[in-house]
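BUG: 3D viewer hangs when loading the predicted structure for this chain

Environment: internal workstation, default settings.
Expected: structure renders.
Actual: progress bar stalls at 90%.

Input used:
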Amino acid sequence: MKTDMEKKIKPTPYPELNAVLSELVESAQIVLGDSLVAVYLQGSFAVGGFDLHSDVDFIIVVEEKLSADQLLALQIMHERIFNLECEWARHLEGSYFPQHVLRDYAQRGAPLWYLDNGSRSLIESLHDNTIVVRWVVRQHGIALAGPDPATLVDPIPVEALRREILEGMHSWGAQILADPEIINNRFFQTFAVLHYCRLLHDLHTGFPGSKRAATQWAKANLDPSWAGLIDRAWDGRPDPALSSRQPADPEDLNSTVEFVRYIMEQKNDLH
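Structure tokens produced before the viewer hung:
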């Protein structure tokens, strides 16, 4: 398969990251052979708003569900890539989609083999099998290998996108309000603020945007009293491996719970 990487296209402004992505694509081609359909960069590197602290979100499309032998080889591959002498190699995050699952957004919600940011091995997860990820891939996905992503993902109605966003707001918001301890570390506390900014932004605009765009939108459209919390959450993005082991600031934790409550109350007026 001829890849965009082989054509010397630079998918990001960071040469070291481009080298890691090239290694990911070439290694996946060796492991998967003809069953590899495509590799796409998605997330902030596709929609914009990325920086040196961004996750590197990808999806790899395969013809069918991974076999046991393929999975074992991919586990070895991801362990090796994680150990490369480049920090970007430890911030890859993505999932393996069977082609028919990616195409149809009605198949969201089933577990896929997933590599978490900061992880060296694949686990089964629902993380990427969403309408939002499909929309980003279809509209903005950067092909590292394979065809234009719009040829592999069916069109997605905006109302289906909004329904999924509302579901996410309700489900995680209910958990946070019932038990704030689930976000009582610096990583999850700041993530919750930025995530709810983005959910509300996407609900209002009808399309997924970057965390940076969402925080700017939130500061311009929500009660100004939340601006300080939003700014501190943005500033808290670096070094998630450390922040996930540190307790949240008690005042910011309480404010985050109230922020989630506020957004849950405001969402119907802002879309």
